[in-house]
Write a structure and sequence with these properties.
- The protein has 551 residues and is an alpha+beta fold.
- It folds into four domains: 96 residues, Immunoglobulin-like (Sandwich), CATH 2.60.40.740; 117 residues, Immunoglobulin-like (Sandwich); 121 residues, Immunoglobulin-like, CATH 2.60.40; 93 residues, no CATH class.
- Helix content is 20%, strand content 40%.
- The protein contains eight helices and 33 strands.
- The strands form nine sheets. Strands 10, 12, 15, 16, 17 and 33 form a six-stranded mixed β-sheet that branches. Strands 23, 25, 26, 27 and 28 form a five-stranded antiparallel β-sheet that branches.
- A hairpin with a 2-residue loop joins strand 4 and strand 5.
- Helix 3 runs antiparallel to helix 4 and helix 3 packs antiparallel against helix 7.
- It is globular, with a radius of gyration of 33 Å.
- It starts with a helix and ends in a 13-residue tail after the last helix.
Amino acid sequence: MLLVCLLHAATAVATVTARVDRPTVDINESFTLEIVVDSSTDLEPDFTVLEENYFVGQVSKLSNTSIINGDIRRSLTWTVMLMPKVTGEQFIPAIVLGNEQSNPLRIVVNEQTNAPPGEADVFITSEVDLEETYVQSQILYRIRIYRAVQTRQPALREPSMSGAETLAELAGDERQYEAVLNGRAYNVIERAIALYPQESGEIEISPARFEARILRDGRITGRKVFESQSHTINVLPIPAPPADFPDATWLPARDVQLSEDWSRPPEEMEAGEPVTRHVTLSALGQIETQLPTLEPPEIDGLNVYADKPELSRTQEAGGLRGVRRDQYAIIGLAGGEIELPALQVPWWDIEAAEWKVASLPARTLIIEGAPVAAVVEPEVTVVPAGETAVQDSEEALAVISAWQRATEVLAVLWLLTLAAWWWSSRSAPRNRREPREPEPPPAHKQQGQLLKTARTAAAAGDGAAVRNAILEWGRLQWPTAAPRSIGEFANRVERPLSDELHRLSAASYSRDGGSWDGKALADALRNVTFVTHRDAAVAEDPLPPLMPPAA
C-alpha cells in the first residue's frame, strides 16, 4: 500500500507556469520568459514553438528545493531570452512539458523608440509618460543606460527637480536586457521612478548623468560623463468634484478596482453570529497611503465592527498599484432580510480626464434566527345580548392570556439580544463601534504640510523648527523605523537634500555653531527622493561588465 502511495505521489500532476519580465517591449529589445514547474522532473520543455515570432537566445535552468514545516518542495525554472521579430500585439504560445502545458501570455511589441547618437558606444536616455497631469497623480520617469562596450567604475546620478513640490518612489526593481540599434548590440539598464506632485505648477527635471571609464582595445579611458534629456511637466490643479459626489475624496489614477469576499455566503447568516466581509480597493498610479477610507454603513438590525486595514502595493507596467484591504465583522441582531447598500468610490481617470465610479452592487442579507414578533389585529365578533357577560369574561381571559404570551415573547427576545451583545463584546472588544472623532488628514497631506512648514522655517533660518518638521515627516514615512536625528534622515534621501541636511546637522552640534544655507535647504526640500540599497551599490559598481557578441 505504501508503495502505491509513493508511486501516486511521484506521478502527481505538476503545475507549469509562464511569466515574462516585461509585458511591453520594442522590436529591437530582448525580454525574459520564465517557465516554472512546481516539481522535479527529467523532462525538458519544447521551445521550438517560439521560433516563428521570436529570436530564441540562451536557455538556462535552475532547480530549487525548500523545506517548510518538514514538507519538502522542489521546483524547476527555465529562463529564455527572446527578441520579437514583428511589432503589434502578440501571444507567447503555451509551452508543453510532458502531459502539461503553461498558460499563454500576451505582450505588446512597439516600434523602435531609441536610437544611438551617431556611433556612440555609451549613451543615456530619459523619458516621462506624461508631460501634463494633475496634483498627486503618478508620473513615470524612466532612465535607460545603453552600453556596447565594457565600462569600469560606473555611477548613475539621478536628476534634481525644481518647481512644484514632488515626492519620488522607486517603481519596481532595476531591469537589464539587450537591445539592437542600427545593427549593434547594447546592454541596457533601466530604472523607473514614480513622481507624485503635491501642488500645481511646473516641475523641471534636470538631465540624469552616467559616469564611467570605458574599456576599449585593452585600454581604459579617463572618466567620461553622459547626460540624458531634461523635462518639463505641467501640473494641473484638482478639478471640482462630480455633482453626484460633492464630498468625493480626490483619487487620480489610471485604473481603480473594487472587490469583496465573505467568510461565508451572506445569504446564510445566523442571528448573533459574526460574518467577516473583506473589501479591497486598488488604484493603478497611486501609493497605498493615498487611498481613501471606506466607512462601513450604519444599518438598523446590524452591528458592524471595522478592523485595521491592510495596506500594500504591487508593480505593474503602468507603475505602482496601491492596495487597501478593509475587514468588517457583521452581526445580525434578529432574523429577516436586510438590504446592504451599494458601495461607491468616485475617482479621476487621468487618461480620460473625467470622473468615474468604482462600485460594489447592493445585496440582500438573509439572517436566520428568532424573528421579530408580528403585531396581530384583534378580530371583532358580534354576539347576542344574553351572552355578553359570558363573552366579556372569556374575552378578558383571552386578552390576559395574549398579553402574557406577548410578554413572554418580548422577554425571550430581550434575553437573546442581551446574550448577543455580551458575546460580541467578548469576541471583538477592540472592534466595538465607538463615537468617532474626526480622522486626521491622510499621511500624504500631513507630509505635504510638514514639508511646507520645513521650507518656511529654513527660509527664516529657524533650524529647530526645520528639525521638528523633518523628523515628524520621517515618522509618517517610516512608522516602524523612524529616523531619530537629522543626520539619520539625511542618509535616507538623495542629494542635494542630503547635503543640506548634513550641513544643518553639523551646524547644530558643532562647537562653534557652524553655518548652513537656509535658502538652499528650502529649495532642496521641494524634492524628496529616497535612497535605496541599489543606489548605494551604484556608486561602487552596480552595472556588470558587458562583452556583447558584436564587441
